[in-house]
Amino acid sequence: MTMLCRALSCFTLLLALVCLMPHDILAHKEVSNAEARELLASPPDGLIILDIRTPDEFRAGHIPAAVNLDFFSPRFELKLAELPKNTPILLYCRSGNRSAQSLEYFEAAGLGPVYHLTRGFRQWQADGLPVDVPEAPDAADKAGRGATP
């Protein structure tokens, strides 16, 4: 019985310490669109905005200044390992599913702190937040720009 009480006491103490830790020490923090906007308005040094959707999804629109790293790429984990350690990352995908699945890779690679955009780009866009949509080269030609006379 005494051994069980000690074990429970140690577990309770450990749980309390983890709960009291500042968020930036934890592996990741779930953020809403409002929290992500605050983060982007006053970004920490070196913030990387990382979109892990497919390249086609990325080309259709993304958060301004985001870089793309395809979660489905066979080189995903290798590319993650190339990212700088101790650098804040705002992470997102389409709905929050892929990015949630990827969090274990970020932790294993020692990356972060990671700010996970919980509801993803779809909700970001639905809320009317800033989106970059690169103009397709052929669209400029069809509009008469860039066409040779």
Summarize this entry quickly.
By secondary structure, this protein is an alpha/beta fold.
pLDDT below 50 for ≥5 consecutive residues: which ranges? 10-26, 139-149
What is the strand arrangement across the widest sheet?
1-5-4-2-3
Reading off the top of the CATH hierarchy, the class is best stated as: Alpha Beta
What amount of the residues lies in strands? 5-15%
Mean pLDDT: 83
The CATH superfamily label reads Rhodanese-like domain
At the fold tier of CATH, the topology name is Oxidized Rhodanese, domain 1
Sheet/helix structural class:
alpha/beta
How would you explain this protein's 3D organization?
By secondary structure, the protein is of the alpha/beta class. The chain has one domain (24-133): Rhodanese-like domain (Oxidized Rhodanese, domain 1, 3-Layer(aba) Sandwich). Helix content is 43%, strand content 12%. It has helices at 2-20, 33-41, 55-59, 76-81, 97-108, 120-126, 137-142, and strands at residues 28-31, 48-51, 67-68, 89-92, 114-117. It has a five-stranded parallel sheet. The chain is globular. The model is unreliable at 10-26 and 139-149 (pLDDT under 50).
